[in-house]
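User: Reviewer 2 asked us to show a designed sequence for the structure in our supplementary figure. I'm pasting the structure tokens here. Could you produce the per-position amino acids so we can include them in the response letter?
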């Protein structure tokens, strides 16, 4: 494809990145443009069921792939277990990391992941959150593992006293 860089015609071979296709062409805004170099996890989507950094994935490298973003997991009136657990455990603050976290947690649990917090931490490694301190995220994923939470109440995190 041809582009003009600083007034110069250039031919580039790399097709657009999946993150840019989703956000800029398709207006799918769940995947966030954070570091855009693979380091923060905010752009993570499922590609054929596997979590991938959409900022590093050329769309041309995954032809005919099935891409799932956080919007594809559920809607406000029909949230997935992981989405409900994040709400219940107040596991999102500014929310910038949340779509990627939920995608990664979903892949972890659908792969048979346990409620063990060390294992959850390992599954979410590379997902950066600047707000929560991570503990409520771990609580949410652990609870989603068994679906043992009640949306009509707000959870009192066992880690709350650590965080305050
Ligand atoms: S935006 Fe893709 S890993 Fe940070
Ligand atoms: S909730 Fe703000 S970055 Fe995680």
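Assistant: Here is a per-position design you can include in the supplement:
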């Amino acid at each position: 494809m041809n582009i003009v860089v600083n007034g110069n015609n250039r031919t580039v071979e790399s097709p657009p990145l999946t993150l840019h296709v989703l956000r800029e062409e398709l207006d799918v805004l769940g995947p966030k443009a954070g570091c855009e170099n693979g380091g923060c996890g905010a752009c993570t989507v499922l590609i054929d069921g596997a979590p991938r950094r959409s900022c590093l994935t050329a769309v041309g490298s995954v032809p005919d792939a099935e891409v799932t973003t956080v919007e594809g997991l559920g809607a406000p009136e029909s949230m997935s277990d992981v989405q409900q657990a994040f709400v219940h455990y107040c596991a999102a603050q500014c929310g910038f990391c949340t779509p990627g976290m939920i995608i990664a947690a979903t892949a972890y649990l659908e792969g048979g992941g346990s409620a063990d917090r060390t294992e959850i931490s390992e599954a979410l490694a590379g997902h950066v959150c600047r707000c929560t301190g991570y503990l409520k995220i771990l609580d949410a994923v652990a609870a989603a593992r068994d679906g043992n939470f009640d949306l009509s109440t707000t959870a009192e995190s066992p880690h709350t006293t650590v965080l305050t």
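For the response letter, you might also mention the following. The first helix runs from residue 18 to 25. Strands lie at 2-5, 8-11, 44-47, 50-53, 67-68.
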